[in-house]
C-alpha cells in the first residue's frame, strides 16, 4: 500500500521540482495546445483552399463517406475546443487567445475566388461548423465575457466583416426563398421537424445544408446584436444589393421571417423538443432583445420594426389578403413581442406615441390604435379568417394581455379610453360567465381531469382571463372608475382574493414573484380609496383572511415554523414580521373604506374574550388592540404590549386623515379611552396624584392624544417624540390625563405684520374690484397674482386675500361663459335652518375648526354659531342640487359623509363672517374649480351622470388623482417607482391631502396660498400643486421607501419647508405642457360615462 508523505516531510529537491518544474510543464502543455488549435484551423483552411477539395452545396453531403467523415471529425475537434476554451483562456496571455480567434475567423471566412464559376456553390468550412453546432453555441460562449468579446468584435470589424455579410446574405436568401415558395402555395422544406427526430441522418441535400447555415447565421446575428459593438458593425454592404443593409432592415427581416415560417401540425406546436423553425428562432432572439434595454432601443423601438410587427394586424383590419403561414401562431408570437415591448417604459412610449414623437404623422396611427382596434374585433368575433379556430381564445387572450400592459398605466389608459375596450371585455366576460355557470361541479372523489371536459376547462380559463384583464384596470384611478361601470367589481375582487390565496400557498413553498406582490399592493391601495371596491373587499372575504393572518402574526406566530429556541423580544415598536401587514392595513383603511366598514358599528366590548377567539373584521381589530378599556381585553392578549403598540401606531396613522379621526372620535370616544388609560398608569402616592409612569405604551398614548386634539401645520403645533432620550430626563414631554393640552404643545403664532401697500398689490386689488369691460380681465388678474406670489407672497393673506378671492369669484360668476354649473337661487333663512340638527361629526369638526381659528387669532367669540350657520346652509343649498339615489353604499344614504373642510377654510379666510362665507360659496359653486376644491359640492350631484353618482367615486379621484399619477411618472419617475415598490399609490395620499385642504400638512399661510392659487390660476393647479409637493419630498420619499415605511411617513409627517411660492414657476411650466389635456378632462366630468 502506497503512502503519501505530507508536504513538510518531502525532500527539498522534490519541493523544488513541484514549485518550478511542474508549472512549467503545465504551462508548456497549454502553449502546445493553443498552438495545436491554431495549426488545426490553419490546416483546415489550407485544405479547403487546396485543389483537392471540390465539394459543392448542390451535390449535398454524405457524412458516411470516409473523407467527409474525416473532415467532420477535424471540425468537431475544433468546435469542441471552441466551446471549452472560454472557461480557461483568461489564465493565459491574451496573444494566445487572439491567435486562436483570428485563425478560427480566418477559416470560417474561406470562400472561392469570386471569379470562379462555382464560387456561389462552394461548400465552405462554415457549413461543416453549422452542421455540428447549428445554434452557434461557440459564438455565444466566445462573446459572453468582455475579455474575449472585445477581441472578436474588433477582428470582425477590421478584417473579417465578410463573415457578417455572409450571414446577413444567407438570411436574405432564405427569406426570398420562403416568399417564392409561399407565393407558389407550396410548403417550404421543413428541416426543423426532421432535425428534431432521433433518427440518424447520413445524407443532407443542398437545401438542407442551406437551411442549416441559415439557422447558424440567424443565431450568430442574434447574439451579435445584443452588444453595442456588434450593432455598430451595421450597416453592411452586400454584393448583390445596391443599398446597405441597416440594423433596422435586419430587424424587419427577422420580423418577416415569423410570418413566412412553415406551418405545423397541432402536435408539433405543443412538442417541447428543439425547434429550428424560423419563427421559434426569431422569437428567441427578439425575446432576448426585449430584456436588454439598450438593445431593445436600438433594434426594436423604431417605426419600421413596429410596422413590420403590426403588418398582419393591419391586413386583417383592412380585409386585405394575408400572406402568412399558420396565422394563429404568428399572431400569438406577435402579441408576445408586443407585450414584452409594452412592459418597458421606452417600449410603451413607442407603442403609444411612435418611434419619434415629434415626427409622428397624423395620417398613420400609432401602434396602440391598431392593437386596440384589432383586439376589439377579436372580442367581437369579427375576423372571418379566425372564425372556428381552436386557438382563437388563445389569440384573444394574448392581445388582451398586450392591451393590459398599456391600460394599467395612466398614459396608456388615456389612449385606450375612446375605444371603450373595458366595455368589450366586460361584455365578453358576461357571456363567458353565463357559459361557466353551466360547467358541472366535479363529483366528490372523482378524477377532476375526467369529470370536467376540456371544453369546460377552457370556458373557466377564458372567464378567469377576462376577469384578470378587468381587474388590471384598477391599477389606475380612472381605470378603477371604468371597472365599476362594467359591473364586474365584486367578481374581480373575488378573483383577486382567490389568486392571492394561491400565491400565498406558493410563497409558503418558496414560489413567489416579488413584482406581482408590488402590483397587488398597488391594486389594493387603489381599491381601498373607493367605497364600492372597499365593500367588495369585505364581501369577498379578503379582509377577513387578512385580519386572521395579521392576528396570527401578532399573537400566535407562524404555525409552520418549528420553535427550537425562544423568540427574541422585538426591539422595534412594530416587529419586522408584522411590518408588511401594518403597511397593508394602512393602505386598506382610507376614509371611504373606514366609513363603509365602520359607520354605525358599535364596539363589541364583550365581558370575556377567549384566547382562541380570532378577530374577523376591522371592528374586531379596533376592539382588541386599540380600545383596550377592560381587563378582559388585556388578559386575552398573549403579547399585550406588542399588540397594543401596534394598535396605537395604527390609530396614529388613521387619525392623520381628519375625517377618519372625527368618525372614530364620535363613535368610539378614543380620546377618552386613552386619557383614562393614562390616568390609570400612575405611581401610587400617599398624598395627591401619583406621577405618570413612562413606558412604551404611555409614550405612544401621549403622542396620539396630542396629534388628535391639536390641529396645525409644521410650525403651528409641536408633537412629542415617541422615543426616550439619554440623560437624566429621558422624556421631557409632559403627560396629561385631561384636557386642555399643556401649552408646550402649542407653537407660538407670529403676529400679523403690517404690510406696506405696493404698486403691484394695489393694481391687482384695483383690477379685481373694477373689471370694467376688459375682455382679458381674468387673465390680467392671474398675471398680477403670479407677480405678487413670486415677490411678496406674505401679502396674500388675511383681509387682502378675502377681498381678492371674494371679488374675483363674484365677477367670474356674473359672466355666464365662466359658469360651469347652473345653480338655482338660494336664500339663507337662519330661523328655519337652525331647526336642523347637525351630525356629531359636524359638531366635532366645528369645535376643532374654531379651536384652530382661535389659535391662529382669526376668530372671536360666538364663532361656533357662525360656522354652524354656514355649514347648515351649505348642506341645504347643496341638497337642492342632489339627486335621489338608491344604493347599498352607506356614503350615498344621506348627506356628505365627511366634514366640509373647504367651507371651514373659507370661513377662516373670511375671519369668521358667516354671511360673507356663505355668499362666497354660493357664487363659487358656479365655477368648475368648485368641483375639485370643494369636495361636498358634487356629493350625489345632479350635475354628474347617474352612473358616476352610484359609483360613489368623486371626480377628484378619477380625474385629478389620475393625472397626478400620470404627471408624476413623467416628471418624477424615481418618486413614481418608489410608490410602486412600496405597494402604495400617489392617488391615495393626494386624495387625503385635497379632501382636508392640506390641514395638518401645511401651515395656514400655505393653505391660503393653495386655495388662492387654484381659484386664480385654475383647477388644474391642484394637480400641479401635488406634483410640486412630491418634488419637494423626493429625497425623503426615496429614503423612506428604502426604510419600508413610505405610507407612514407621508400620512404622519407635515410638509416641512414647503412654500407654494417656491414652486410657482415650476407649476407654470407644468401648465404649459399639460393644461389643455387636464382642463378638457375636467370639463368632461358631466359626461364621464366611458
TrEMBL record:
GO terms for biological process: non-motile cilium assembly. Keywords: Cell projection, Cilium, Cytoplasm, Developmental protein, Membrane, Transmembrane, Transmembrane helix. GO terms for cellular component: cilium; cytoplasm. SUPFAM superfamilies: Ypt/Rab-GAP domain of gyp1p (SSF47923). It holds the Pfam family BROMI_C. It comes from the Eukaryota. The chain crosses the membrane at residues 21-44. Residues 39-636 form the BROMI middle region domain. InterPro entries: BROMI_C (IPR055392), BROMI_M (IPR032735), PHAF1/BROMI (IPR039156), Rab-GAP_TBC_sf (IPR035969). The keyword rRNA processing does not apply. It is found in: Cell projection, Cilium; Cytoplasm. The keyword Transcription does not apply. Gene3D superfamilies: Ypt/Rab-GAP domain of gyp1p, domain 3. Residues 654-1085 form the BROMI C-terminal Rab TBC-like domain. Required for high-level Shh responses in the developing neural tube. Together with CDK20, controls the structure of the primary cilium by coordinating assembly of the ciliary membrane and axoneme, allowing GLI2 to be properly activated in response to Shh signaling. This is Protein broad-minded. It comes from Chrysolophus pictus (Golden pheasant).
